[in-house]
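Dear colleagues,

For the upcoming journal club I promised to circulate an example of a predicted protein-ligand complex. I picked one with phosphoenolpyruvate because it came up in last month's discussion. The inputs are reproduced below in full, followed by the predicted structure.
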Amino acid sequence: MKYILITQNMPSPMVYSLHMAKVKRTPLVIGNWKMHPATLEAAKRLGKDVVTKALKARGTASCDIGIAVPTLYFDEIGKITKGKPIMLGAQNAAAGAVGAETGEVSAGMLAERRAAFVIVGHSERRARGEDNAQVTARAAGVLAAKMIPVVCIGEQSRDAEGDFYHIVHEQLDAVFANLGGTAATRVVVAYEPVWAIGTGLTPTAEDVSTMRLAIKKYLHEKYGDAVANKVRVLYGGSVTEENALEFMQNGMIDGFLVGGASLEAVRFAVIIKACIA
Ligand code: PEP
């Protein structure tokens, strides 16, 4: 019922889907290493392996690739990615430039270390108390530092009434409410249902495409076609080499935010292949 409220009032979902499908966006695959691996030496080994295999998998196809590594590994992994078409990213950034914020790292500091993107609002951060206002401020800090914010949104659980669409809508609206169209096109939205992260559970491709449609509808209504068409919507949550192709083909998404499978270069490479298939 509530889901219908979200998908009505626009070119009908089907027409809208077809319209959006005509617009070709470059896929984006991001590996989120989280707090892995345990040592710098292991990180360098993984970095080399990921760069070699990811670039081989991509070949000459058009696909953006990023790895979000622990901040302390930035410089060494940066040496491995230097000059290669693989973006280095961080997993969070403070909203301000400097301040009495023990344990935080600012977007400006990350940009200075050559970060190209920053994940904000990951559910593992939200679980530690980050709310929509903080996520929005962090995303604004990332934009101000001229990087790409990869904004994670997603429900804790699903209910038959479709209330979860409203949770996702609120998370989305918090970030975009005060953002102009040009800045909005630089945001990447990662739809990550919390119940699917690291659990082996996944929504169906149809569930993902319907959520993507709701996200696109929001952007379409707020900014119009041109901006809505440019914003990439990724899916994250137990993406594997087995399910990636199905999500790409039937989930209508623009790529993935990958956790566990990004720690194995071979698996990450197969997921990249699925994005360009
Ligand atoms: C994530 O943490 O963003 C994630 C999607 O993890 P996993 O792929 O392991 O579910």
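Two points we might discuss: The pocket of phosphoenolpyruvate is lined by residues 32, 192, 197-198, 236-239, 257-260 (CB under 6 Å). DSSP finds 13 helices and eight strands in the chain.

See you all on Thursday,
B. R.
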